[in-house]
Amino acid sequence: MFVLISYDIVDNKRRNHVFKYLKDYGTGVQKSVFECNVEDDTYSRIKRELVRLTEKKEDKVRFYPLCQGCMKKIEISGWGEVSEDEDFYLV
């Protein structure tokens, strides 16, 4: 599943925790935006963890799951590419 995750977090400590957490699952494409290509169960785990790391009354986190057709329509103005994690195998 390809998902775009954006966040607006007022507290520096919480924002840094969210950034460090998300960089293990995707690519930072803006200061507070990540592109993640993850399995459904990992996506659920990410959402649960971000709820834990943030304050509901102060912070905002948005999740934009994109289908394969939508991914093909992504346009970029300027430099950069859509993040695609390569398949890997752990032996």
In short:
This protein is an alpha+beta fold and 91 residues long.
Q: How would you sum up this structure, described in words?
A:
It is a single chain. The chain has 91 residues and is α+β, with helices and mostly antiparallel strands. It has a single domain (2-72), classed as Alpha-Beta Plaits, CATH 3.30.70.240. The protein contains 3 helices and 4 strands; from the N terminus they run E-H-E-E-H-E-H. It has a 4-stranded antiparallel sheet. The two termini are 23 Å apart.
Notable characteristics:
91 residues; Alpha-Beta Plaits; 26% strand
Give the C-alpha Rg.
14 Å
- Would you report the number of β strands? 4
Average the pLDDT over all residues and give the rounded result.
Answer: 86
Q: How many structural domains can be distinguished in the coordinates?
A: 1
Share of helix, binned: 25-40%
Class by alpha and beta content: alpha+beta
Q: How far is the N terminus from the C terminus? A: 23 Å
Strand content: 25-35%
SSE topology sketch:
Layout: E1 2-8, H1 12-22, E2 26-30, E3 33-37, H2 40-53, E4 60-66, H3 68-72
Antiparallel strand pairs: 1-3, 1-4, 2-3
